[in-house]
């Protein structure tokens, strides 16, 4: 196959799943409008959706995926360099918000294992143990508003209930591959501990260890004593440590900076926000 025509402008295509790489077949791309072309697949665990077009190694110059375990698999299939840019969070944004008192001991966020599905049962059981509980809250009409309300509850909570897709499956999760999602990274960015069964994946190793409360989720009788102990041992100093970890390891800007470096491009906005990120980390961890 002959080399594709190349223009001057670089292009980064961010895809919700591998199937979205089919957008590379658009006429302006095929006609050679762009120079270096990188793809970034967020839900890369759905690798069976990778289109045949993307496997030809003719359009893409570099592919980035969020699942580190699948690097070799993708590398063999797309015939271009494949790198890891794992799931992140807007840690810098949330670190700028001064939280009010952590008046919620335990927050329910998103899907839950069967034992924790009924909020009324959970609230009654946790109240008996002396813990406050926030169950489901109304969803918002757009993603920005929804993210804002999720963040507001996380900033008020000491602990959030969240488990990986193997321990807490549903119809839209992958049946086999484990992965982290926004619940885990956003919790760290808001200084909130996570109680449940964490996913067994490479990206989970980027999360703060002290942010995890490993808890059996098959019954509330097993979990509530662990939650009670965790709330009793919680201190206000924990939240900024979790936030500092998120700023250092989980902020999306780190991922974008890695991709930008590979593409040999820079922007004043990214440079400014990376500098601000580093300043914020230094202010939380003085002397380190």
Task: Quickly list its features.
288 residues, 10 helices, Rossmann fold, globular, 5-stranded parallel beta sheet, single chain, Glycosyltransferase family 1 protein, alpha/beta, 4-stranded parallel beta sheet, 9 strands, 2 domains
Note down, in words, how this protein is organized.
This protein has 288 residues and is of the alpha/beta class. It has two domains: 1-85, no CATH class; 91-246, 3-Layer(aba) Sandwich (Rossmann fold), CATH 3.40.50.2000. Helices cover 36% and strands 14% of the residues. It has ten helices and nine strands. Strand 7, helix 6 and strand 8 form a beta-alpha-beta unit. The model has no long low-confidence stretch (mean pLDDT 92). This is Glycosyltransferase family 1 protein. It comes from Cutibacterium porci.
Strand ordering within the main sheet:
6-5-7-8-9
Subunit arrangement of the protein: single chain
Number of strands: 9
Radius of gyration: 21 Å
How would you summarize this macromolecular structure in one to three sentences?
By secondary structure, the protein is of the alpha/beta class. The protein has helices spanning 27-30, 71-78, 91-95, 119-128, 143-156, 182-189, 220-233, 238-249, 252-263, 268-284, and strands spanning 9-15, 34-41, 62-65, 82-84, 104-108, 133-134, 157-161, 193-196, 212-214.
């Amino acid at each position: 196959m002959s080399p594709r025509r190349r223009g001057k402008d670089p292009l980064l295509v961010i895809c919700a799943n591998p199937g979205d790489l089919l957008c590379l077949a658009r006429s302006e791309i095929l006609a050679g409008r762009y120079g270096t072309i990188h793809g970034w697949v967020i839900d890369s665990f759905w690798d069976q959706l990778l289109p045949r077009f993307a496997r030809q190694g003719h359009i893409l110059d570099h592919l980035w995926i969020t699942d580190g375990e699948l690097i070799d698999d993708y590398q063999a299939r797309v015939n271009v360099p494949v790198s890891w840019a794992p799931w992140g969070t807007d840690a810098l944004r949330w670190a700028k918000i001064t939280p009010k008192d952590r008046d919620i001991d335990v927050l329910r966020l998103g899907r839950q294992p069967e034992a924790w599905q009924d909020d009324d049962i959970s609230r009654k059981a946790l109240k008996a143990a002396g813990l406050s509980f926030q169950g489901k809250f109304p969803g918002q009409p757009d993603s920005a508003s929804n993210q804002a309300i999720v963040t507001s509850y996380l900033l008020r909570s000491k602990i959030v209930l969240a488990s990986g897709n193997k321990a807490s499956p549903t119809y839209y999760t992958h049946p086999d591959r484990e992965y982290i999602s926004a619940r885990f990274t956003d919790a760290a960015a808001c200084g909130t501990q996570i109680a449940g069964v964490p996913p067994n994946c490479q990206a989970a190793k980027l999360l703060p260890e002290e942010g995890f409360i490993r808890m059996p989720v098959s019954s509330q009788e097993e979990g509530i004593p662990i939650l009670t102990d965790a709330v009793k041992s919680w201190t206000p100093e924990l939240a900024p440590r979790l936030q500092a970890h998120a700023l250092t390891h989980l902020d999306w800007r780190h991922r974008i900076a890695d991709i930008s470096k590979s593409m040999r491009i820079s922007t004043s906005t990214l440079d400014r926000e990376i500098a601000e990120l580093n300043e914020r980390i230094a202010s939380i961890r003085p002397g380190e």
